[in-house]
Design goal:
mainly alpha; globular
């Protein structure tokens, strides 16, 4: 019988996949391309919606998944795979949620009208009502 933790992990992955593949949403490639920009903006303090600690946890989770060292070795029946699955479920969920928020924030930086019409509060954004984009002023 599956444990509640496994059900929670499956539900989290399902929700992350649903958000990630919804029509009109960013593709996995766009999300992957946005992640280095997210890290750079978070480290420089330009983007404040994610903490440096959360970024460190995401990197640690990725390292744990790809590392041959495990808390519970794979040869211990299914328990050895379950710990990797739980970490992977958490990482997938965080990746989708964080890149979703970051891509919206990036779009708001280019188009303040989008930010105003969407009703989102975009952390780290400018409070100015105009931005310069490719030589044009957008109000």
């Amino acid at each position: 019988m599956a444990s509640p933790k496994r059900f929670a992990a499956i539900a989290a992955v399902y929700q992350a996949v649903r958000v990630a593949i919804r029509p009109g949403g960013p593709s996995l490639g766009e999300r992957a391309g946005a992640f280095p920009r997210l890290v750079r903006a978070a480290i420089t303090g330009e983007y404040t919606a994610i903490s440096k600690g959360r970024l460190a946890l995401m990197v640690a989770a990725l390292a744990y998944i790809v590392s041959p060292l495990d808390l519970i070795p794979e040869f211990v029946l299914l328990a050895g795979l379950a710990d990797d699955a739980l970490v992977m479920a958490w990482l997938a969920t965080q990746f989708v949620e964080e890149t979703e928020a970051f891509l919206e924030w990036e779009l708001a930086q280019v188009s303040p009208a989008y930010a105003a019409s969407s009703g989102h509060a975009f952390p780290g954004g400018s409070s100015s009502t105009s931005h310069t984009v490719r030589g044009d002023v957008i109000r």
